[in-house]
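Q: Hand in one record:
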Amino acid sequence: MDDVTTPPEQPFLFQDLQPEPAATAPSDMLAADPALTGPPATAVLSIGEQDAEPERRPRPWRRIGEEIVATVQTLLSAAVYATLIVTFGFQVARVDGLSMEPTLEDRDRLIVSKLVYELGDPRPGDIVMLYYPPNPEKMFVKRVIAKEGDTVQIIGGRIYINDNQVADDYLTDEWRSHDDYGPEVVQPGYYFVMGDNRNNSSDSRSWGPVPKKYIVGKVKFRWWPLQDAKIF
């Protein structure tokens, strides 16, 4: 069976300071007070900016707070986009099992389109991700063999749909089973699915056709392993 499990402060500017007149020292002082007789205070001016208001840089805590808010907004936006993509568009899945060999291998990573079946119906030959009918908490990956109204029959491992043999040249004899099945007519709203590894697959031969509401989406792309990347 194939289960599927779902990047320094600015100097202060003094404006045109003028020294106050030196006070007259009292006659009984032995020495002049340097604070009263010393040179006038020197004004500190920035050339060309004598009339400008002092520049105030934002405090560090405020800058850190703004960065935290921006980071949170980015993460929330990414979460919303991811939710929308998963809910309405695509889903990433991993193959666990061998029932889709040789088309899909164990541990392959897939991109599944969920939107495609909102706009149309599954077609024979599509590789799909679906809920396992006996236990919908699990997900499987299988190939659609027949749609509603089709008559399915298997003779010696060869599949016939409406008395016409299915062209499944993508399989060699080592992957084929030699069993018989049917004939059976697929009821309305249901699909007959099978694994490509016909000798080692739990599928509609065992638990019957699958309702469309159980088909999650179509496998569109295998992105891992990179050397085996493929569009389906």
